[in-house]
Every structure is written in C-alpha cells, then in structure tokens.
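TA notes, week 10

Several of you asked for a full example with nothing omitted. So below is the full record: structure tokens for the whole chain, then the designed sequence directly under it. When grading your own attempts, check the secondary structure regions first.
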C-alpha cells in the first residue's frame, strides 16, 4: 500500500492517515483472519520510496501478499505486478470510497472494505475466506498473467544454480562401492583374471540399483559394448568378382 501522502482528483490523505488505516484496520483484519501471520508493511522493512532487496525478496517468497490498490500509486502497482509474475498467494483489497481502479486492475478479483468498525469485521471475514481458498488450492493461478502462463505452458526463467554432474567414472566407482560383490568382480577383471559372465550377471541381478547406475554410466562413457564392435565397423565379407568373357 502507499506509505507517503496521496493526493488526486477528489481525495487527499497524509502518510499518518494511511499508517492509521494500516494499523487499525488492515493489519487488525489480517490478524482476525489468521493470528499466526507476521504482518509487515514496506516502511517497516526499508526507507520510504526505496524498493530494497529485502522488499523484493519478501515479494518473491512471502506466503501471502496483500495489495491495497485504493490509490493509483506506481510503487504499489509495480510490486503487485512482480508478485503476480513470480508466485501465487496474492489478495487485492480496495477502499470503497477510493477512486475507480485503473482498467488493467479493475477486472481482477478484489475485496472492497470500509474504514469503520463494521468494515473491520467484514474485511476480517472476507480475508479468512480468501485464505481458506488459497490453502485449499495453493497451485491455482490468482492473476491473469499466471492463467495465461499456465495455458500456454510458459516456462519461467530458472536462476537456481546448476549442479555439476559428477564424472561417469566417479558414478561408476560409487555404484561399485555400494556392493562388495560387484566391486570384487570388477577388480578381478581389472587384474586380468577370467570372470564368469553368468556369475557377473547373477551378481548384477542381485544388486539392481547398483547395476542400473553401473551399466548406464559405463554405456554413456563408452566402456560398455555388448557387441564387441559396432555394426558400422564390422567388415563385410568380400565377394568374388565375376568378369564376363568377351568374345572377339
């Protein structure tokens, strides 16, 4: 919600009036809906007029974001857009006496409230209903952006660090170390000792999880070849050439 003075066509509110509305109405209604919530307004996180890293992090990760769109404030609209783009769990509220909401926001589901004692109770009840819905349907899109993204299967950018895949040799060694039987067979083979293939298959069959890792990574690294030679390297048997005898 706005935290500074708000002036426009037909309305004028000071920052202290907005702060009182937050303390006495909005935060109180949230606590009535669910007393376990820790409620923070942006000026309780960073300096006025500043969108800090902490605010952006909370927008991305908070279980719930409540946006008051009563007054056309650029910061509020920008932060609401960020939330819609990255996560579900947003509730929009609006003062009944405030100016008409901008077109892009007017069609979004929102709760209208009155800054009165009865309005406090009504807002608490409506927030409780909205929270119940969000808990019952945590993955349901709650904005037009999310609905379209789901419809067209839009893939969000993934900024999480990529884990390096271990080398195939390391995976093979770790797999063998999980089974002394498999390790013993492979060590025999490495020493040049003859290993019974049927016995090797039996050991593998007794250790399917190890065998899966071992065979997959050996095949991936080219260490496993069931055919000895690939079909493309097998030489074709030379056929005799026949020459026709030409009569003079």
């Amino acid at each position: 919600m706005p935290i500074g003075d708000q002036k426009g066509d037909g309305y004028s509110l000071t920052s202290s009036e907005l702060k009182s509305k937050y303390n006495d109405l909005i935060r109180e209604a949230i606590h009535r809906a669910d007393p376990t919530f820790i409620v923070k307004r942006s000026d309780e996180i960073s300096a006025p007029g500043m969108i800090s890293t902490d605010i952006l992090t909370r927008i991305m990760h908070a279980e719930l974001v409540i946006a008051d769109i009563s007054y056309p404030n650029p910061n509020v609209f920008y932060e609401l857009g960020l939330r819609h783009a990255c996560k579900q769990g947003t509730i929009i509220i609006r003062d009944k006496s405030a100016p008409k909401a901008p077109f892009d926001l007017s069609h979004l589901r929102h709760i209208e409230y009155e800054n009165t004692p009865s309005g406090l109770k009504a807002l608490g009840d409506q927030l409780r209903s909205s929270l119940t819905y969000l808990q019952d349907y945590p993955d349901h899109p709650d904005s037009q952006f999310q609905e379209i993204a789901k419809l067209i299967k839009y893939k969000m950018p993934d900024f999480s660090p990529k884990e390096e895949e271990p080398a195939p040799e390391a995976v093979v060694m770790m797999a063998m170390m999980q089974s002394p039987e498999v390790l013993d067979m492979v060590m025999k083979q490495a020493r040049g000792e003859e290993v019974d293939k049927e016995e090797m298959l039996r050991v593998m069959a007794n250790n399917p999880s190890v065998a899966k890792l071992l065979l997959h990574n050996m095949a991936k690294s080219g260490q496993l070849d069931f055919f000895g030679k690939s079909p493309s390297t097998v030489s074709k048997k030379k056929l005799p050439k026949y020459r026709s005898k030409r009569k003079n």
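DSSP finds ten helices and five strands in the chain. Use that as a sanity check on your answer.
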